[in-house]
Amino acid sequence: MDACWTKTGRIERFAPALGEPGEPLDADVRVAWSRDGQLLLRVEGLPDGASLELGLSPAPDDDTLRLLWPAEVGPGIHRIAVQPALAPGTHRALRLAARIPMDDGGISVLPWAPAGPGDPHRAGVVAVLEAPGPDLGLRVEASRDGIKATAPGATRVRIQAHRTPVPRGSRGVPPPWSTVGEDRVQGAPPAPGWFTIEAVWHDDAGRLLDLTRQRTWWAGPPPPLAIEGLHPVPKAWAAGRGSGWAPEDGDRICAPDPSHAAAAALLAAEVRRFTSRTLVVARRGRCAIRFEPLDGLAAELPAGAVGNTMAFGVRVDPTGARLGVQDDRTATWAALALADLVGPDGVAPAAALVDWPDVDQRVLYHALNLRARPGWSASTHAAFLRRVVARGRYTDLVITPYDSFELPGVAGPTPPHARPTADLQSVIAAARALGIRVWPGVTGLAHAWWLTSAEGFLADDTTGEL
């Protein structure tokens, strides 16, 4: 038995999922199989009282967690009956997680993670071979241009993106990005993230010879512009002359169009929050900052904004700033862009920029459930809309109020946590002043919420704590 374990690879790193407390754990877990097709497991190096949770896909050559067959074992050597029996030349999905008892009586679950945070939604893979794999090698290179994987002699090399799991076979949901080749493959993913690289070797008869997987993070190419403090990076940017502009107490923000008044007030509030300097919102006069039609400012901005109804522009010189906008929504985005340029340092660089959202419509589904939030206030929520939702460039807000507000004219008891309808109306008014369309939401089937993770222009905040 000892000779058997010396030929198996060591599974040693277990880590908490992203955002979960705890530190990675080093252990010594080894997996093998017996001639009668049963799973052999040796577990060492776990803390006192800890155990190992494992799951094996029941079907050969099935590397998903569908119909996962689970078990839990402690330290030592274990023989685990598997049906159907393991067969050479096949592979199975294998999920391993260390279960660590906590001082408060709870359990910390640390999935197997060769690199990065643990992912409870994804499994590893185990190849069932009659002899140790020849370890022909998989080389992965991540550069600004993409990911390159080389595996000499491999019959298949695949690079595939990770993403939030969605139901299998769901209509309209495309598969995750991937690219496949024989012994080498190179691809430029559309977005940064974690990627799994798999290489498979077969012998001349088509039997599985070896299989290996790696996980790597690809950061993507650097942004075309590196502008400290400004997010997202604008579509076009031209540096200006001079040392920039620093707002002073009493500087005026002129918004001749009344629909831009809320954006001007937001700009004044953000500059005050960043720098403690007080700006004055006015309709006219001697202005350090002026909102004006984008078409009139376009000649002084980089190209690309004309004809784009979602675009805005900002031009800063040593005397102040001009914001080229088209409506209340683009005025909000321009105001926040200038506020972020000023930033905590209190100086906006001399420059001209144009920008617009990457998608024409971005929807936030917001659960406004106040049952467990006794300290909620309409003013605080309005600040959340101005500082967070507006910066996310959401165009639509769907509010599901649950039973959190009074319903005038409706007979029946009122929940003790219900707030006046005027509070809801003030939240709606704050969103609309920022150019955000507001829609009433209704509670839907719980299993339908996955739609918001399947489409890039949708987002949800089902906990009400975004």
Name the helicity range: 10-25%
| Largest sheet, strands/sense/barrel | 7 strands, mixed
What proportion of the residues form beta strands (DSSP E)? 25-35%
Uncertain runs are 166-170, 462-466
First and last CA, distance: 53 Å
The total of helices stands at 7
- Mean of pLDDT: 83
Number of strands: 27
- Structural class comes to alpha+beta
Question: Strand order within the widest sheet?
Answer: 17-23-21-22-20-18-19
Alpha-carbon Rg, integer: 29 Å
Question: What best-fitting shape do the alpha-carbon axes yield?
Answer: elongated
Topology (SSEs and partners):
Blueprint: H1 2-6, E1 11-14, E2 25-33, E3 39-44, E4 51-56, E5 69-73, E6 76-80, E7 90-101, E8 107-111, E9 124-128, E10 139-143, E11 146-150, E12 156-161, E13 178-181, E14 184-187, E15 193-202, E16 208-218, E17 236-239, E18 252-254, H2 261-275, E19 280-282, E20 289-293, H3 294-297, E21 312-317, E22 320-325, H4 328-342, E23 351-355, E24 363-367, H5 378-389, E25 396-400, H6 421-433, E26 437-440, H7 451-454, E27 458-461
Parallel strand pairs: 18-19, 18-20, 20-22, 24-25, 24-27, 25-26
Antiparallel strand pairs: 1-2, 2-3, 3-6, 4-5, 4-7, 7-8, 7-9, 10-11, 11-14, 12-13, 12-15, 15-16, 17-23, 21-22, 21-23
